[in-house]
Amino acid sequence: VYYQWARFWYEQAINDETTSIDTKRKALYQIALMYFKGLGAEKNIKLSTHFMEESAKLQHPIAQYIVSSEY
User: Fold this and answer.
1) Do 25 and 55 touch, CB atoms closer than 8 A?
2) What share of the chain is helix, strand, coil (3-state, %, to 5)?
3) How much is the pTM?
4) Which of 3, 4, 46, 53 has the fewest Cβ atoms surrounding its Cβ within 10 A?
């Protein structure tokens, strides 16, 4: 249940126009991990990759490393 609430609040942060870029990149990264591991959502590699790439676009260093290592 905790992970479902966490995913909900991360998604709220991503969609809120007043959220800082730093918070958005962290939230995108956390959602990517949750989908990758199946925590709070059904495991979904396609969605995990999408959120990881979005986080990398916002300069999240670990997300950038993960995305770059896929290619």
Assistant:
1) yes
2) 75, 0, 25
3) 0.88
4) 46
Beta carbons of 51 and 29 less than 8 angstroms apart: yes
Show contacts of 53-61: CB within 8 Å, 24+ apart: 54/28, 55/25, 55/26, 55/28, 55/29, 58/21, 58/24, 58/25, 58/28, 59/25, 60/25, 60/26, 60/28, 60/29
How far, in Å, CA of 61 to CA of 68, rounded?
10
Q: How confident is the model over 16-67, as pLDDT tens digits?
A: 999 999 999 999 999 999 999 999 889 999 999 999 999 999 999 999 999 9
Are 30 and 37 within 8 A, CB to CB?
A: no
